[in-house]
Here is the input.
Amino acid sequence: AYPSKKVSTNLSWLNLWQFRWRNWRFDILWAVTYFGMASSFFPLCGVYDDYLNNNSSQSLGGLLLWTLRRVLYLMSKIFVSGRVSLFFMIFIIGLTFGFTDKSHLKWRVHLSWSVLHALAHISSALLVLLFVECMAEFVMKEGIIASQNAGNAPQSLSTGLASSIFDEYNAHFSHVLEDFHIVGNSTIFQPSQGILQSCRSDERMYEKLSSAFSWLYREAPLLKTALAVFDLPGAIGSTHLEMCKVLCASDSPCTWSNEFMIYQQIDRLTILKYLSAIGLYFVIFAVPIAGNVFGSWLALSLVVFNCQYDEGFSSLRMEHYKNWLKFKIDSNGDLEMFAIGLKRVPTHWKKDPQWVGHRKEGAVTAPSWSLKTPSKWVPWRKSKKFLPEVIDHLKIKAESS
Here is the structure.
């Protein structure tokens, strides 16, 4: 085999940290699957208070123990009351079972290794869920997101980032657009009678653009809405508070499970706003973890169980360690086979100055094997690692007549 078993084993460990960036197209699959497995638990009302009550000393051991207990509890709740999460959980279990190579494994090992792979993904998704929900309540409890009350209006939360930028714009830059609008309707841009006909079409186009700009600037809150996009923590905090106020109104347990009928009382726009905002943070943390989990599974499958060869090495997308066969029939009629290997493939090339093409003197076409320099391109720099080597040789003698 080429490369050797030792080299192949060492290369397989690259999946631990290189699988995700070499196979970034899987990010969409990870994002949808992980968010689907956690979707039935949004929001976890009071999860940060639950952590403080169970780990008042703020110790690392208490954190790990609380995390383990809550992940296992959430996993059991998926089977008991999960809806969308249960569907994605069954999907990931079936996907990992079907993807695992069973040609080198007994059925018990195949089943156990597939289930462990699925549980690693499910646990990772729930771990990310706990983290983002704890952070959402942490920033509210610690005052990072300030609450704002306006009369009898419901309490809202905002970082103040968007409003402060908009206030700065009003104080220092709004007059620029005001002056532009005033100048645009003044007589400065009115053409003289001599060139009125030649610029009438340009004037109409300018009037349309000016009217559209004036409508966006004066009637539609375009700028303020655009700046509000930067206030995602405020959107998460306000909708989280609003949803938890409804879910926990009847003093029923609402941290680890939500009553379906009570959940239906929440406005769908509020749910969509919350899931869209917190989903961005969830995906940012979930996708790298999912890629590393799958890469670690591939590496262990290759090294420990000697399976997943095709997936494990094709995922590396490695252009090196190429090999091919060359056959030769000598003058005695014997057939020789040479297995040639190339450890490293050059990635930078230059034109060979000694290359003259496939023609000799007299413009007679010559076969490539007769040329001293058959290739038009050579590596940019010379190195021994770019030289091919004979890794195996076989000779079959011709039968004597």
Remarks:
- The radius of gyration is 34 Å.
- The beta strands are 146-148, 156-158, 322-329, 335-342, 349-351, 377-379, 389-396.
- Confidence is low (pLDDT under 50) at residues 148-155, 183-189.
- The longest helix spans residues 268-303.
